[in-house]
Amino acid sequence: METRNTRTQLKTRLQQREIVVAPGIFDLISVRMADSMGFDCLYMTGFGTVASYLGLPDAGLATYTDMVNRVSAFCGASSTPVICDADTGYGGLLNVAHTVRGYERAGAAAIQLEDQEFPKKCGHTPGRTVIALEDMVKKIKVAVETREDPDFQIVARTDARTSLGLDEALRRADAYAKAGADVLFIESPESSEELEKIGRSFDVPLLVNIVEGGRTPQLTPPELEKLGFSLAIYPVAGFLAATQALKNAYSEIKGLRGTTRAQATMYSFEDVCKLMGFPAVWDFDRTHAD
Question: Could you tell me which residues come within 8 angstroms of residue 191 by beta carbon, excluding any fewer than 6 positions away?
Fold first, then answer.
């Protein structure tokens, strides 16, 4: 799907009443799988992407170059709109402008920018600190001014809840909306009551981050929709499931049991070949066979 169309599609969908659910993608197999399932959008998780691409924790170690490489690869393999994590914008205001241009040209439908101090840390983990509200407002304004496509969505995330409390997080989100952010993301609220307060505080699309084992209650999408949220992301579900599946399969091999018992829970080799596009290769080979 042409990139501009995916952006318009995402913008239009987020303004509807029915909540959007987005799985986390972290490598190209997860992209292929999620793209084949008819989601309205996908979410490029920073945690999972850094882990799968670099084998490192999501702690400010990945560079702009690392991440825009993944944005290009993921968006190039997907016909579904992709919201892409850009951490703090990888530096100051000039870096933010460079990042927005790069992500937009790489095919992202939306970019997520957060107000953490550098080096950032993964949400739902301890030790996160935030920059001054005024500095993040400048970043949002630069992002809005820099984008070439007005439908390219700017997602503004604040991590202020954990260290400064919910009221400060709400104050920041309001300032980011006034600066031009299209979607607001208050990271890691800690109760249903906090989610309800967030939901009734804004009249713009709201994102909620559902992390299995994280700080935020595991409400269902219909429950979140009733509270006022437009988008629920599930960034870690895919790689948590994949990691457990790897452990199970490798344990069978290490235990000298082979994989006969584990095979019943595996995706079939035939279906993986289809997912990755081998039938087109085989058709090409038949067409051009000597």
Answer: 217
Residue intervals in the chain for CATH 3.20.20.60:
3-236
* DSSP structure string for 90-140: SSSHHHHHHHHHHHHHHT-SEEEEE-BPSSP--TTSS---B--HHHHHHHH
**Is the omega angle on the peptide bond into residue 119 within 30 degrees of 0, that is, cis?**
yes
Contact (CB, 8 A) for 216 and 187: no
CATH topology of domain 3-236: TIM Barrel (3.20.20)
- Using one digit for the tens of pLDDT, what is the confidence trace for 272-288? 999 999 999 999 999 99
For the stretch 215-262, pLDDT in tens is 999 999 999 999 999 999 999 999 999 999 999 999 999 999 999 998
pTM: 0.94
Phi/psi for 216 (5° steps) reads -90, 140
Helix (H, G, I), strand (E, B) or coil at 53: helix
Number of Cβ within 10 Å of residue 203's Cβ equals: 8
DSSP 3-state of 216: coil
The tokens describing 264, both together, are 């019943």
